[in-house]
Structures are given as C-alpha cells and as structure tokens.
Design brief:
The protein is α/β, with parallel strands linked by helices. It is about 35% helix and about 25% strand. Helix 4 crosses helix 5 and helix 7 runs parallel beside helix 8. The longest helix is centred in the C-terminal third of the chain and has 14 residues.
Length: about 280
C-alpha cells in the first residue's frame, strides 16, 4: 500500500511517516510515562511501550484497567471528554501527537478507529464508505475508492449489488466489516479496534479475526479485547494491564507486562500476568 499524500497545512506539526524496509522495522507509536486522568481521577498511570509497524498489538486485562483509555490516546479521542488530561509523551513516527499545531482531525484520519458495537450511519452502504472521503475532499475516483475499501474489508462480494440499500439492513458482522471499510476508505496508517467482535456471534468473530490477519499486511493494528483466546490468535504483541489500588482506596490501571504474544501466554515474566492468563485472577 502506498502512503497517501498528506495536506501538511492540516496535519500541522506531524509529518508523513517514513517508509520502512520491512515489517516491524519502524516504531509507529513510542509511548513514554503515559498517565490519563478524568476530572482529576487517575485512570491509567505511567505506561510505556512501543507499537511497531504492521504488527497486531493487543491490549488485554480486567475491566477498569485502562485499556480503552490507552487506545483512545492514539487518536486523541480523549480530547472529546470533558476533564480528560493526558500526561507523558506519545510519539507517532517520532512526532509528538500532542504537540502544538497538530490537528486532531488529521490525526484521526491517519489513525482510524473501529468501536465495540457496529455503528453504521443510517445511510446507504455506498454513502457510509464515501462519507469520510467526501468530508476530507477525496472525491476523485470515489466509486473505485468505495469498492477498494469494501474489498479490503472482505465485504465487496456480499454487497456489490446492494450499494444503494440502507446499511442498517446488514447483519451485525457485516455492519462491523462495513465500519472497518469506512475507516479504510480515508487511507489511514493505523487502525484501532476497541473490542471489535465482542457483540458478534462466533462465525462473525472468526471472519473479523481473519480480516485482521489480512489487514496487517497494509496497516498497523491495535486491538483491545477481553477475549484472551482472540488475543492469542490474532496478535503479534500483547500488553497486559491490571488494576492497582492506592492507599486512599482509589484505583487506576497500570501496564504490567508487554512482550511477544507467545511469551505472554506461555512464559510471562510477571506473576500477575500468569495469574490472569491462567484464569486465577480477573
């Protein structure tokens, strides 16, 4: 996949990522000492990790450990929450995502997101995919762009004769693949997925997992999942988060361990990780 042209006036202090020579050569996100709080209440504290190019990186851990908070840092979705405060360093291809002059809208174009529940617009299948490109002025070759996105999301053959039909008429699994196609249509560099299969049946879940394997050839993918078996199946790297209780009784998420998925599940370095993946905790 070729890197799209970037409007630098909108991108601000970010610049076009360099092309790597091979899978995993480049660090896409370099996160250092990240803490996130909401209205003064700490949700995640002092997390440090790197996400590499064309890897699938999974975030696992119990509820309330900061997984979704962390993934929303990557495309500045926390900016939309009143009282949210992000501290630490979040570099994207060596550029500070939270630096002066960085346009959050352009950040979200380059770093797309798929949410837990499929959320198609109440529009036609075609207009769902075309919506983002139209808003961003990517109107040239729109039909081809829509077809390419649907093909990339393994949905084209199922909907190519139904493009004018309402997207809400699709099955849940089809709707989620439509949402993935919608994210792909604006030519992102990264796709974030927050529990993308938790609302789907096992067959649809399997199709989403197969799709993730295909998509990582062209995209860097970060996925939050409660399903440890899913993380083991799809992820190259896995980060385990847990909940820490403070002296004042407050709770916040911490990054316990981050390593290759096979090591996390077969030979973790931290006892807390072992307890979680073996079912003794969480």
């Amino acid at each position: 996949m070729t890197t799209p042209e970037i409007d630098r006036t909108r991108l601000g202090a970010l610049a076009e990522p360099a092309s790597g020579d091979g899978r995993g050569d480049d660090v896409v996100f370099d996160v250092r000492d990240l803490s996130v709080s909401y209205s003064g209440n700490v949700a995640l504290k002092d997390a440090t990790l790197q996400v590499r190019e064309n890897y699938v990186t999974a975030f696992i851990g119990p509820s309330g450990c900061g997984k979704s908070t962390f993934i929303r840092v990557f495309n500045r979705m926390n900016d939309l929450i009143d009282g949210a405060r992000v501290e630490g360093t979040v570099l994207y291809h060596d550029r500070d995502l939270y630096g002066d002059g960085v346009d959050p809208v352009e950040v979200r174009r380059r770093i797309g997101m798929v949410f837990q529940k499929p959320n198609p617009f109440p529009k036609s299948i075609y207009d769902n995919i075309a919506f983002g490109p139209r808003v961003l002025g990517m109107k040239k070759g729109l039909d081809e762009r829509v077809e390419r996105a649907l093909q990339s999301a393994a949905l084209w053959d199922e909907v190519k004769d139904r493009l004018k039909e309402n997207a809400l008429g699709l099955s849940g699994g089809q709707q989620q693949r439509l949402c993935i196609a919608r994210a792909i249509a604006v030519e992102p560099d990264v796709i974030l997925m927050d529990e993308p299969a938790s609302a789907l049946d096992p067959i649809s879940t399997s199709r989403i997992e197969d799709l993730i394997h295909d998509l990582k050839r062209s995209y860097t993918i970060v996925i939050v999942t409660h399903n440890m078996q899913q993380a083991a199946r799809v992820a190259d790297m896995t980060a385990f988060f847990s909940v820490e209780v403070r002296d004042d009784g407050g709770r916040h998420g911490v990054l316990v361990e981050y390593d290759r998925t096979t090591k996390i599940f077969t030979n973790p370095s931290d006892r807390r990780t072992e307890d979680y993946v073996t079912g003794r905790f969480g």
